[in-house]
Amino acid sequence: MKITYFFISLLLLASCSSNKKQVDNKATKSDFVLAFGSCNRIDLPNLLWDDILNTKPDVWVWGGDNIYADTDDMVALRAMYSKQKEQTEYKKLVETTDILGTWDDHDYGLNDGGVEFVAKDASQQEFLNFMNVPEDSPLRKRQGVYNSKKYDVDGHSINIIILDTRYFRTQLTPDTETSKRIKPNDYGDGTVLGDVQWAWLENELNTSKADFNIIVSSVQYLSNEHGFEAWGNFPHEVDRLAKVIADSKAAGVIVLSGDRHISEFSKREINGMNYPLIDFTSSGLTHAYRGFTGEPNKYRVGEVVFTESFGLLEFDFNAKKVDFKIVGDNGIVLEKLEQVYE
């Protein structure tokens, strides 16, 4: 997404960080720690990797726009990925932490791009190189970067389900009637995931015995009123995902998203689920929408964070609880949310 950025006053910066606490995972004694983020430029200061390292995550999840390439030139794309991999603190993270992730439009290669991008197969291979996926991995032969990985911890488990909202996503509808950029397609028109990925996702949820199931989507699932990219531009796909999650009876389903250059929590009650669905948006790592003045989101919980940040999820298996934290520079917790999954 293309956004004009503005500087905000020192007073506002002070108010964002006042009365905030630093992350201390030793104090929380979390059973499993997941850190994630999106919107990361290699030509801007990478301020947060030391803070991410300090949380000692069990896994780091890229939420998309991991670099800003916007190109079908694979030499240029490869060079940008290589530069990110050599960033000192990120390199330390790779050496100590499991790395998962998806892409979004700017590392996919085409702004707001989807199924029509001509270089998507070549771009996928460069993405997999960046993620250090072995040459003989089945992911090298799959169309799209969707995948999953389960983590077993002392008789409990977390299943991380990575979606690809680019490779199969069909045409968006420009909004020519309002100041918004995109409007929802007619109900039933188009797809976010495509038939093959939908079938795979349904199987992942239907067969999962994990305590928690984390769905990673590069674009927001619940927030849908802003007029930028989101699942809400395909309203039938929003309904389909809600039904798939509810029908699966999968435990502790959580959505992680990025893209927006803001961070926020969204929460929605869904028929057939005995806990609310949370969409935790964390964006961006190196640049944020500092000119943010507000936008509607009927599912929002808490305040929008529009300074650089990353997301943190701390899991307590026995209490069936997750602490969600939006964390800024110097490890300051900017916003937090707690949810118990009975």
UniProtKB/TrEMBL annotation:
Q: Does the keyword Methyltransferase apply?
A: no
- Signal sequence span is 1-20
One Pfam family cited in the UniProt record for this chain: PhoD
Q: Which UniProt keywords apply?
A: Signal
Which residue numbers delimit the PhoD-like phosphatase metallophosphatase domain? 48-264
Record carries keyword Aminoacyl-tRNA synthetase: no
Q: Which PROSITE patterns match?
A: PROKAR_LIPOPROTEIN
Q: Which Gene3D superfamilies match?
A: PhoD-like phosphatase (3.60.21.70)
Q: Which domain of life is it from?
A: Bacteria
| Protein name stated in the entry | Alkaline phosphatase D
